[in-house]
C-alpha cells in the first residue's frame, strides 16, 4: 500500500492525525458529521487512497464507543429500512469509482452534502412540529429512507463520508438527540465493519496501516468522553445547527480542495 508508516511521520503530522482521531470520537458521541474534518486531515497527511484504509478502523473504534454509550436509543425500524438501500449505494459507489477521478468524486460528494443541508434547513423551517421517527413506516418515509440510504452507501464507499448524509436523513425524519445518536451509532458500526474485508482485499489495510491505527485509536477515547459530556449540555436546536454546520463545512471543504 502506498502510504507512510508510523515511523515516517513527523511529530506535527502525527499530532494532526491524533487530533483527527480525537475528533472522530467526539463526532460519534456528540456532533455527527464533524468527522468530515478528520477525513480532510487524514487525506492531507497521508496519500488520499491509503488514508481511507487507515481511517476505517479508527471510525469503527468510535462506532463501538458510540454503541456502548447510546445502545438503548437506537430506532431499529429505521435501520432495517436503510440497509438494503445502503447496499445498493455501495454498489453504485463501486461502479462510480471505476471511472471517476478524485476531482469528480470530491465535487459530487460536496455538492450532495450542500444540497441535503439546504433541503434539511428548508424542511425544518416549514415544520410546525417534530416528525415522529415512526413515520419511516409510511410510503413517503420509505421513499425518503431509500433515497438517503443509496446516497449514504455511495458516499461511505467512495470517501468514508456517509456521516453527513445520514445526519441529514435522521434530522429530516425528526429524530431527537439520543435517538439520532443511538440509531447512527448502530448504523455505522454495521456498515463500517462490513467494509473491512473489501478494504483489506484492495490493499488499503495492511500491517503498516494497522500499526498506525494502534497508535491513533487511544485518542478516540478522550474524544468520545468529551462528546458524551458535551451532548448533555447542548439543547436540541443547537444540536441540529451544529450538525448542519458540520455538514456544510464538510461539503465546502470537498468542493474547494
Automatic annotation (TrEMBL):
- According to its UniProt record, where is this protein located? Cell membrane
Keywords, alphabetical: Cell membrane, Membrane, Transmembrane, Transmembrane helix, Transport
Give the protein name, as stated in the record.
Probable membrane transporter protein
- Give the membrane topology: Multi-pass membrane protein
| Assigned protein family | Belongs to the 4-toluene sulfonate uptake permease (TSUP) (TC 2.A.102) family.
* Signal peptide extent: none
Q: Which organism is it from?
A: Streptomyces cellulosae
Q: Would I find Membrane among this entry's keywords?
A: yes
Major subcellular location class? membrane
> What residue ranges are annotated as transmembrane?
53-70, 82-99, 105-122, 148-172, 210-232, 238-256
